[in-house]
Description:
mainly alpha
Amino acid sequence: xxxxxxxxxxxxxxxxxxxxxxxxxxxQYDLTEYSVGGRSxxxxxxxxSFAGRWFVGSIFTVWFVMAxxxxxxxxxxxxxxxxxxxxxxxxxxxxNSLGKKFKLETQADFIQLRYGSTVFKGIFAGLTMLFWLxxxxxxxxxxxxxxxxxxMGSMDYNISIIITTMIIIIYVYYGGVRSVNNASILxxxxxxxxxxxxxYIIIRNLFGGIGEMFSDxxxxxxxxxxxxxxxxxxxxWLSATISGALGSILWPGMYALIYTxxxxxxxxRSAIYSFFLLIxxxxxxxxxxxxxxxxxxxxxxxxxxxxxxxERYGSSVILSLFGIGTIAASMSMCSSVFNVAGMIIAKDxxxxxxxxxxxxxxxVAKVGTVVIGLIALWxxxxxxxxxxxxxxxxxxxxxQTAGPIIIGIIWRRSxxxxxxxxxxxxxLTTAVITxxxxxxxxIDGLSAGIIGLFANIIVHILxxxxxxxxxxxDEIFKYRYx
Length: 482
């Protein structure tokens, strides 16, 4: 059965997207424009761009199902979102200031600046891109699920992924980070409206209102209001929250975004504004998920549960809007990955890169965007077992970059020896605990990533104390505002 409403809204969404991208376009002429957009983003653009990188389509699928299965536990996404905004407010100013002073364009540029090692820069860039890739694959798959569900099965899953991915590749290639940021204004706005309004409408249709829904939860599933999930999991919720908050600023795309802000003041204001853009839709989507857990016999515990709920208890318009909201969230995240991955290939993983070859590097970056986009597209159309579990594991691994980055920002004594050995210890510890389940029994739900981070920090500090400091650290710290 066709959902004509979805096709109409989807075309309208694409038309508006193209209009915004073309309207805000500036001719792409060099690497700086492609990567940081002339460092000209104001608070409005930055706020919506941050939200675009933060909103993921999987909130309508994976996290929605988590809320339906585990109740208020899933709201850790709100807690770590607040933590992410605090991280942005505290550290974003320094990252932005250093970016302007030293003309940084990628996260790994900061690593080279702080530690003076091209080799470590390349290793760091390669690992972070590897940790990032499962996320974009999941988001592309999420778009396929959303379009297939919102169109009531009339559009093929793989065809959906191919169409949307090619649109992303084209507009990123066309306009670089400006296209990514400008598109996020529309994309984040849609997620906000859909997440709040459509979720509330279904809650009202199902229960009569939020108060009535909570009354039903208290009566029939009081365990939904508890975070305690039993013996052996005492620290699981806390670990997930801390990893999420730390991981927020450690992904390469967040660094690239922070470099685009025109001033440190933009970062601070945007961290505050983003609270009001991010929290309401997350809260209402997960709240609806909790309500979905009360609806029995409807086959709601799968990745298209939200769309099933929207079709049965909403309308064709609500179903279509949830589809568009999921597509918008996924596109904003994926476009950032494609843009930044192209830069990583051109600058950080290119052994021949230097400042005298920026014209050729700009061309490599654009080609890299296309190549990464096509690789991600291919991987999204094949079956990958346990992709969601792999994605959450990547959070544990990306947390290990907190050593070189956060310690590097706050502690002058940190050096290349401590940063490299600490990060290696953290990744190794995380991997051992993850793949040795019998060890996990004794840590009471504390995640492998957090334990790895403890090892990371200890090794980083000890090794830095017994080895020579980086001789240029004082020059760097002149422009660090903490």
